[in-house]
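sorry for the late reply, my laptop died twice this morning and i had to redo everyting from scratch. anyway the thing you sent over, i finally got around to it. pasting the sequence first so we're on the same page, its 178 residues, then the predicted structure underneath. double check i copied it right bc i was rushing
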Amino acid sequence: MSTDEPTPKTSPEPSGVDLARVALRAAKEQARARGDAARQKKQARRGGGLRSGARADGRDPMALGSAINRLITERGWETPAAVGGVMGRWPQIVGEDLAKHCVPQRYDEDERVLSVQCDSTAWATQLRLLAPTLVARLNEDLGHGTVRMIKVNGPTGPARRYGPLRAPGSTGPGDTYG
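ok and here's the structure:
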């Protein structure tokens, strides 16, 4: 009898070697799972696994400089930190003589203006004359466009005191001498 129907193809039965490989693979996976469970239990008894090993991981302490640089970058404080460094190095940037009489007060990041307080009008005038050169020097150090302008503040007058010898409504010597 000849049949034109194709005989169904069946996969050959796994031989003894194949069965042994499958059994070995299953045994290894079970052993690995038991080992992981035992390791986790042991770490839980020792303090929750908070110890660091010989290799670096995310729990290791960072160097202080690296931690600060990372914080500055994450928060977007690069420009204010750089300007703060300039305020610390002010004598090296402007020179010893000028630094004795003119002190940086604050930096406005939105307007990119550095405010400087001078102790006399003569030094304030000197700083106003040097302002374009200082802006160029600061921008070399900090990056182009970081400081757009230097606002120079001269000395302030004495504080207005109020006391028993003042006339009511008086604003002090300014109302007499203009």
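The first strand starts at residue 102 and ends at 108.
thats about all i looked at so far, will dig more tmrw
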